[in-house]
Amino acid sequence: MKRIGYFVLAAAMLCMLTGCTIRKDVTEGQTETGISEDAEDKEREEEAAGREDTGEADLSQDDKDGEKTDESEQQETMVLTQQVQVTADEVNVRDYPSTGEESSVIGKAYLHDSFMLVGQNEEWYQITYLGQDAFINKEYAKVVMTEAAAVPGSEESDKESASGRCIVIDAGHQQKGNSEKEPVAPGAEEMKAKVASGTSGTASGVNEYELTLAVSLKLEEELQDRGYDVIMVRRENDVDISNSERAQIANEAEADAFLRIHANGSEDASVQGMMTICPTAQNPYCGEIYQDSRDLSESILDAMTKETGAVRERVWETDTMSGINWCKVPVTIIEMGYMTNEEEDLAMQKDEYQWKIVRGIADGLDQYFEGDREHSRTGS
User: Fold this and answer.
1) How many C-beta atoms surround the C-beta of residue 290 within 10 A?
2) Which of helix, strand or coil describes residue 343?
3) Within the chain, what is the greatest distance between any pair of CA atoms?
4) Are strands 132-137 and 191-195 parallel, antiparallel or unpaired?
5) d(CA 22, CA 35)
6) In whole angstroms, what is the distance from residue 175 CA to residue 239 CA?
7) Residues in contact with 313: Cβ distance below 8 Å, sequence separation at least 6, in sequence order
8) pLDDT tens-digit readout, 258-300
9) Which residues contact 380 (CB under 8 A, 6 or more apart)?
10) How far apart are CA 260 and CA 176, in angstroms?
11) What is the side-by-side strand order in the sheet with 166-171?
12) With the C-alpha atoms ordered 20, 21, 22, 23, is the resulting torsion angle positive or negative?
């Protein structure tokens, strides 16, 4: 009997120790309260019954955390950056922080143009200009803080959608045109000059080939930041690459899109606006890329005009362009504006406006590929 008594007493003590002490093996989300499992279960049942009476959903902690995450992903955050803003009507951009013989002027900046601040000393701001380090005298500029909206998660989403996409950028024209002839398309009897030097700004005096390269280098940077693989047809002005050769570069790369950057001209100085150019559906040389090229042209034109506020002209379908006729991949010619229109010409020389053009092109490209994914998912 004594032994039985001891066992009963031991069992009671064990029950007390396991059932009524603070649990050390609580799972994530439970509180260490010292309440027994039975009491907790009963309390949860009562709470659940109360929720059923009121129609309240029984959300787990994970569900609630998920709701909070979804909400936070939709909230915009503001990112502050330091920019160098020009305060003079015009200022030289130099390759070395000096006005001496060791320094060369590599460009011009204009009132309210902004550049990313890289560094500074007592007299000079170091900036990023056309993809390279450059310098502006502090007497003609100031540092300002700018902010941009960013949606958490959106950058990774953009990069995911762009991952593996190859984009070929052709900065239109070159320093010296080549009047030698080449076929306008594979096997065509009609011949055209291999490449022209392009137009020039009636107000700025800037050559089209200079402007297209400046914008193309910015576009390369923007697209790479978004996760695209980028191939540049040219990085210098003093080259000799014909229109058919430019198309062949895109073909050989099996590019997902071929972007040909240009600026327009007209005998009527009042004409302004943006347009894009693609082949017709009846093009005998590249008709198979018509729909993709048309969609690409539409997306980019819509996004560019939205970003810049420029006049939307049209998507021009034509089979007269050698650089299009030789293409086997989706292609668009992007006419950023009219260099024969004073207002548009001067605007296109400004760094800030060039970045707007670039963001518009990149947004249009994103939208084009998003539409391509939707098309694939629906099977239409």
Assistant:
1) 17
2) helix
3) 119
4) unpaired
5) 7
6) 7
7) 273, 274, 275, 335
8) 999 999 999 999 999 999 999 999 999 999 999 999 999 999 9
9) none
10) 18
11) 229-232, 166-171, 257-264, 331-338, 274-278, 312-317
12) negative
Q: Which residue has the tokens 């902004």?
A: 114
Whole-prediction pTM value? 0.60
Place of tokens 């100031």: 142
The conformation of residue 200, written as its DSSP 8-state character, comes to: B
Question: Which is nearest to 226 in space by CA: 158, 150, 313, 135?
Answer: 158
Task: Retrieve residue 334's tokens.
Answer: 């992007």
Section 62-70 average pLDDT: 46
Radius of gyration of the chain (CA): 32
- The continuous run of DSSP H or E covering 267 comes out as none
C-alpha angle 283-287-288 in degrees, rounded to nearest 5: 175
Q: Helix 290-308 crosses helix 351-378 at what angle (to 10 degrees)?
A: 140
Which letter, b or e, does each residue of 15-48 get, where b requires 16 or more Cβ atoms within 10 Å of its Cβ?
eeeeeeeebeeeeeeeeeeeeeeeeeeeeeeeee
Angle (CA) 149-83-304 rounded to 5° is 55
Residue (of 81, 79, 218, 78) closest to 143 by Cα position: 81
Would you give the end-to-end CA distance of the chain in angstroms? 85
Answer whether residue 103 shows pLDDT above 50: yes
Q: For residues 217 and 209, what is the distance between their CA atoms, to the nearest angstrom?
A: 12
